[in-house]
Specification:
- The structure is a single chain.
- The chain is α/β, with parallel strands linked by helices.
- The protein has a single domain, classed as Dihydrofolate Reductase, subunit A (3-Layer(aba) Sandwich), CATH 3.40.430.
- The chain starts with 14 loop residues before the first helix and ends in a 6-residue tail after the last strand.
Length: about 250
């Protein structure tokens, strides 16, 4: 056991995340989960994540999208949090273009029901070259599929439900080599159970109390997945933990 002592301030909190080599995923693409939780593991307060987040966490959450080729999120989170298209600073966009990437990554929404507001900004205000994706399954309502195709790139991944492995494979085929998964907890659990999570960035807010909703909801029968701690940052009592998949330690 070791004591973790406070070190020097980091000039740019995004720099340690930008320095990670994500070019060698275990499967089709590198999948990073980015979540926030209270000390008791709750993932929301009154149905919203924002109440858990400090100013530093909110800034990092927005800026972390710079690492992604696509930002993947569940439909319930989109509805509750009022998701819009990704916005990045001019400097971040220029850095991405210099790497041969699009200035901003598109949003991809996971939904079986296709119960979404097709007039919402996440669809209508998406940047040129970053059209929003909808990841659904073959059993989705045909009429709603037609609606979705008018405003989004539709990806079919699975038959009766959205299959995480098929979803990641399809996104990789579209050229998305780094997938940033922003929740929600149920979808993250599906991704973990499908053995598709390579990295977890978890912000732990110094609060207790909130919704009885864990940061990751594992599906029935899911095994135990071990992660290895790679870095720890701190700001105003919030811990910023970065884990990677620990090979050979699953239960």
């Amino acid at each position: 056991m070791r004591v973790l002592e406070q070190g020097a301030r980091v000039a740019d909190p995004l720099a340690p995340y930008l320095a990670v080599d994500r070019s060698r995923p275990r499967h089709d693409c590198w999948v990073t989960g980015h979540m926030v939780a209270g000390l008791d593991g709750t993932a929301a307060m009154a149905g919203r994540v924002g109440a858990l987040s400090s100013a530093a966490d909110q800034e990092l959450f927005r800026r972390m999208r710079q690492i992604a080729d696509v930002v993947l999120v569940g439909a319930e989170t989109v509805r509750r949090e009022g998701y819009g298209p990704v916005r990045l600073s001019e400097q971040a966009q220029q850095a991405r273009v210099a790497q041969g990437r699009a200035p901003v990554p598109p949003v991809a929404i996971v939904t079986r029901s296709l119960d979404l507001d097709w007039s919402a900004p996440v669809f209508r205000a998406a940047a040129h070259g970053a059209r929003t994706c909808v990841v659904t399954c073959a059993a989705a309502d045909p009429a709603r599929l037609v609606e979705a195709e008018q405003v989004a790139t539709v990806v079919l991944a699975g038959e009766e439900r959205v299959d995480p492995a098929a979803a990641m494979r399809a996104l990789a085929e579209l050229g998305h080599r780094v997938v940033l998964c922003e929740g929600g907890p149920r979808w993250l659990g599906e991704v973990v159970a499908a053995d598709r999570l390579d990295e977890l960035c978890l912000s732990v807010s110094p609060v207790i109390g909130g919704d009885p909703l864990p940061v990751c909801m594992n599906p029935p029968g899911a095994g135990v997945t071990a992660l290895a701690l790679r870095s720890v940052l701190e700001e105003d009592g919030t811990l910023f933990l970065r884990y990677e998949r620990a090979e050979g330690r699953d239960g």
